[in-house]
Specification:
Blueprint (H helix, E strand, L loop, with lengths): L13 H8 L1 E4 L1 H8 L3 H5 L9 E2 L10 E11 L2 E4 L27 H4 L2 H17 L5 E11 L19 E10 L1 E3 L1 E6 L5 E5 L6 E5 L3 E5 L2 E3 L5 E11 L8
Antiparallel strand pairs: 1-10, 2-3, 3-4, 3-5, 5-13, 6-10, 6-13, 7-12, 8-9, 8-11
Helix pairs in contact: 1-5, 2-5
Length: 245
């Protein structure tokens, strides 16, 4: 299976890349520098992915996805956790699971208390504000584990999609005994596209959700306990999706 080299963006040019192409791919060391922490501090978050809960909402009948979900409001450098709430998307953005209020277990308090957690979210939110200002960002955080216990796991069972937010960050937390999981980014209103495989923990894909669509291809096992862990963060101006729906 061919692995396509990631087209990385230098740290100083992330904002320019988002404005020019709608996405930026960032090396792990630059993610740590952006967040003002070390890679070891980011790695301290990773053990919590071993304690995710099953996703019982998969309409394809699979049992390959585990996750946790929490929400925050960001105003400048202030990040406040919101009361626990369901995740909701309209059918327009998620044809498979849209229109469902999906209540997942929250992210563990010990994970949220790690120094790297707040730094990462606040600094990524500040970067989003450089591209498109907002009085407040409504942030959703999703921990995902996709496993291969059934032979195949689907990181994006809904296919290529937008999320219905302003910005999306996809961070690879780890890959273990798998092949596949290629990331694909396409212009929402044009023919352009890019494909690559994220292999190093804490590689970051940052997307302008209004301008691009994205997907990750299925994964297959290369050994026992094959899985792919990611942290997906979204920033939306105005409100959380589902408020008033």
């Amino acid at each position: 299976m061919t692995t396509y080299a990631p087209p990385f963006t230098d740290l100083a040019h992330i904002g320019a890349a988002l404005r020019a192409t709608g996405y930026a791919l960032v090396r792990p060391r630059d993610v740590a520098a952006l967040a003002g922490c070390t890679l070891d501090e980011l790695d301290a978050l990773a053990p919590s992915w071993d304690r995710l809960e099953p996703d019982h909402y998969l309409k394809d009948g699979g049992k390959y996805r585990h996750r946790r979900h929490s929400c925050f409001v960001q105003q400048g450098a202030e990040l406040v956790q919101s009361p626990h709430r369901a995740h909701w998307q309209p059918l327009e953005y998620n044809a498979l699971h849209g229109g469902m209020r999906r209540m997942f277990e929250p992210i563990e308090p010990a994970t949220l208390a790690q120094p790297a957690w707040r730094r990462l979210l606040v600094e990524l939110g500040a970067l989003c504000s450089q591209v498109r200002a907002a009085p407040a960002w409504y942030v959703e955080a999703h921990q995902f584990r996709i496993d291969t216990l059934e032979g195949i796991g689907r990181p994006t069972p809904e296919g290529a999609h937008r999320d219905g937010v302003d910005f999306v960050a996809v961070l690879l937390v780890g890959r273990h005994h798998i092949k596949g999981g290629e990331t694909r980014v396409f212009e929402a209103a044009g023919p352009g596209g890019q494909r690559f495989t994220m292999t190093e923990p804490w590689t970051l894909l940052l997307l302008d959700d209004e301008r691009v669509i994205h997907e990750s291809t299925p994964i297959q096992p290369l050994g026992a306990d094959g899985h792919r862990d990611t942290l997906v963060l979204t920033w939306r101006a105005g409100s959380f999706q589902g408020d008033g729906a």
